[in-house]
Amino acid sequence: MNNSISENCSSCGLCAKDCSLLSESADSPAAIAQRGATVHEAYSCTLCDLCSAVCPQGISPMEMFAARRREAVTNSEIDINEYRYMFPDRKNNVMNIYRHQFGVDYSDINSFKEIESCFFPGCTLMTYAPVLTREIYKRLELSGDCQGMWMECCGKPLEQLGLQQRLTDMSGQLKIFVKEHNIKRLITACPGCYYQLRKLFDGTDLKIQTVYEVLKFVQQTQPASAICTVHDSCPDRHQGLFGSQVRQALDQCGYSMIEMAHNRDRTICCGSGGQQSHFRPDLAEELLLKRKREVQQSGADTLVGYCLSCVLKYEGKLTGINVVHALNLLLDLEPDFKGAKDRAAKMLSGPDGKRLWAEIMTED
To answer: How far is it, in rounded angstroms, from Cα 124 to Cα 196?
Structure first.
């Protein structure tokens, strides 16, 4: 991989123009490949793959940094257990604790027997937007497109962290679950989950769809002055499936749209990619400010995202701009994710918060 980068990269600098990591480095991807990426560089990368989208040769330095993360974990060059609060395969992780603390519970609909088609909301949506999650499931169930909801993580956070063995183990469990429950179709709302699961079940008979190709959306009357702009999710960068479906649905529902400078395959990461917020919050903040400027320059009054992680990254941070999930608009449903990040922070503050943090960080 590194040889390919060093041989094909012309050091033109195009990738560095839009990448904070490559911009702060004195070396081109070719030079980094020749000397070997550092652990610091690997965990500074958002793994968003904008570099390959702008590269004339289609080179993907992201793959080099992702491989370096796996190597760092394998060789114990990083104490990855310091970040175990994010491990989705642990009972004691932040999202599980948040759901427990705030009464987010789906036990009334999480009953699996043999289910042909089920809704896979993904960790972030089912944790921080339970009202929206239930509404999506209700509509899928009423239309006959869905008979259950699978509350599991796709494993992507493990891949991002470089935890290859844990990812392999979790992926194996997902495959077993699908087989045991005779699941034939998964309907996903999260682009990260969609592409992760599609990769995992490639070559099988399992059909994986997005909610946007299954749900029926009703046209609404919108204020003539209302203009929205779409923030595209990095996992959707190369295929553009979610981006196209969301824009089409918004148009059909009567929303006026305008594009930002960075959109579709040239979208910029929100700062959540590669868990950058945890490893390089300074670079994540740069991305936030960059997107903020682009939203303001577009003239839009609403920023629409179709990945809740992205939406939560911007929510409350863009003064005068309404930040909303596409499905809240399309289903005409008030957002219930507002303030979720603040609630999570408050949950871990004070004496009770210290107790919870200790519980989260306790080894399983």
So the answer is: 15
